[in-house]
């Protein structure tokens, strides 16, 4: 019985051991399977890691290449900007050189034209140097523009002038301004004429005395080489010299003192002396008197006498007699062809 019990117990233990072994084997298999799965996953993870590392390295390489390209582009941009700046400065320098060369070319052409044209135009107004911007025809055009523009603007000073003439009508004030403008133009012309003649005379006299030459007439002085050069130089510098005459107030100092006019007024004359009209007068009159021969501003017409309607046109009122001159006629030279018609205030002679 004891043996049976032991055998039974041993059998039960063996069964239990077999059961445990089976369970352990099962768990071992599960662990082995899980280990295999982990190993597989680990291999896959390792592969992904290696792939990511490779992609990372590729990205780093591409990023470095991009940085290198960017640096190259920045350098190229900087080089281009420097090149553009250099080219811009080069262009500016060349443009300045071109400007200087063009000016020298224009000056040489002007001088050549002056030298070539002087022999033709000297004392011969029928032949005109078309290269001269201040040739008589152009001066005639500017003379007409002076009357149409600055003269008309000066006539708008009626209210200012009226304070010096109490009790007079606007039409009477207008006539007074016309007389002052006419006086200013004629004084400017004659003063420029005197200044022009005095320049050549003084220069010729000094040269003749230095060279022990016996010259007496103005014509002798004008024909001196130094005076010819001075005349050409004076024409080239006409604008500059006219500016000096205007700025220094060298002209029309006796415009009031030597004038026999009932309504003359120093305040009105001072007003007009500072106007654009007078400035243009100085430039035009100076251009007139340095021509060869000199351009001619007509003498004043005698009031109450007939006038030539081919030379003068009526101002406001028509008629056949001169009341007063509004604007003198301009001729190419004395006894020469008319360049610009004058203007007179006219009236009809009573029968």
Automatic annotation (TrEMBL):
<keyword id="KW-0963">Cytoplasm</keyword>
<comment type="similarity">
    <text>Belongs to the MIEAP family.</text>
</comment>
<dbReference type="Pfam" id="PF16026">
    <property type="entry name" value="MIEAP"/>
</dbReference>
<feature type="coiled-coil region">
    <location>
        <begin position="14"/>
        <end position="111"/>
    </location>
</feature>
<feature type="domain" description="Mitochondria-eating protein C-terminal">
    <location>
        <begin position="136"/>
        <end position="345"/>
    </location>
</feature>
<dbReference type="InterPro" id="IPR026169">
    <property type="entry name" value="MIEAP"/>
</dbReference>
<dbReference type="GO" id="GO:0035694">
    <property type="term" value="P:mitochondrial protein catabolic process"/>
</dbReference>
<keyword id="KW-1000">Mitochondrion outer membrane</keyword>
<keyword id="KW-0175">Coiled coil</keyword>
<dbReference type="InterPro" id="IPR031981">
    <property type="entry name" value="MIEAP_C"/>
</dbReference>
<keyword id="KW-0446">Lipid-binding</keyword>
<dbReference type="GO" id="GO:0035695">
    <property type="term" value="P:mitophagy by internal vacuole formation"/>
</dbReference>
<protein>
    <recommendedName>
        <fullName>Mitochondria-eating protein</fullName>
    </recommendedName>
</protein>
<dbReference type="GO" id="GO:0008289">
    <property type="term" value="F:lipid binding"/>
</dbReference>
<keyword id="KW-0496">Mitochondrion</keyword>
<dbReference type="GO" id="GO:0005759">
    <property type="term" value="C:mitochondrial matrix"/>
</dbReference>
<keyword id="KW-0472">Membrane</keyword>
<dbReference type="GO" id="GO:0005741">
    <property type="term" value="C:mitochondrial outer membrane"/>
</dbReference>
């Amino acid at each position: 019985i004891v043996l049976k019990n032991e055998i039974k117990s041993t059998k039960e233990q063996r069964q239990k051991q077999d059961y445990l072994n089976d369970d352990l084997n099962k768990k071992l298999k599960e662990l082995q399977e899980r280990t295999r799965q982990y190993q597989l996953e680990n291999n896959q993870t390792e592969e992904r890691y290696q792939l990511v590392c490779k992609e990372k390295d590729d990205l780093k390489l591409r990023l470095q290449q991009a940085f290198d390209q960017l640096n190259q582009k920045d350098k190229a941009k900087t080089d281009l900007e420097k090149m553009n700046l250099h080219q811009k400065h080069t262009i500016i320098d060349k443009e300045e050189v071109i400007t200087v060369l063009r000016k020298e070319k224009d000056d040489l052409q002007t001088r050549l034209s002056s030298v070539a044209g002087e022999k033709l135009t000297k004392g011969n107004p029928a032949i005109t140097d078309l290269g001269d911007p201040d040739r008589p025809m152009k001066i005639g055009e500017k003379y007409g523009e002076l009357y149409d523009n600055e003269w008309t603007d000066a006539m708008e000073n009626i209210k200012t002038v009226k304070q010096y003439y109490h009790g007079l009508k606007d039409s009477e004030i207008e006539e007074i301004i016309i007389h002052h403008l006419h006086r200013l133009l004629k004084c400017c012309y004659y003063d420029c004429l005197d200044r022009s003649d005095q320049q050549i005379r003084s220069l010729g006299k000094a040269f003749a005395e230095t060279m022990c030459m016996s010259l007496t007439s103005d014509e002798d002085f004008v024909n001196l080489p130094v005076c010819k050069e001075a005349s050409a130089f004076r024409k080239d510098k006409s604008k500059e010299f006219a500016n000096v005459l205007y700025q220094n107030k060298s002209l029309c100092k006796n415009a009031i003192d030597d004038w026999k006019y009932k309504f003359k007024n120093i305040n009105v004359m001072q007003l007009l002396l500072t106007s654009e009209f007078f400035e243009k007068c100085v430039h035009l009159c100076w251009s007139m008197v340095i021509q060869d021969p000199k351009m001619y501003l007509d003498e004043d017409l005698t009031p109450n006498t007939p006038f030539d309607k081919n030379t003068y046109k009526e101002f406001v009122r028509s008629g056949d007699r001169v009341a007063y001159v509004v604007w003198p006629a301009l001729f190419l030279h004395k006894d020469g062809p008319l360049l610009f018609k004058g203007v007179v205030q006219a009236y009809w002679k009573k029968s």
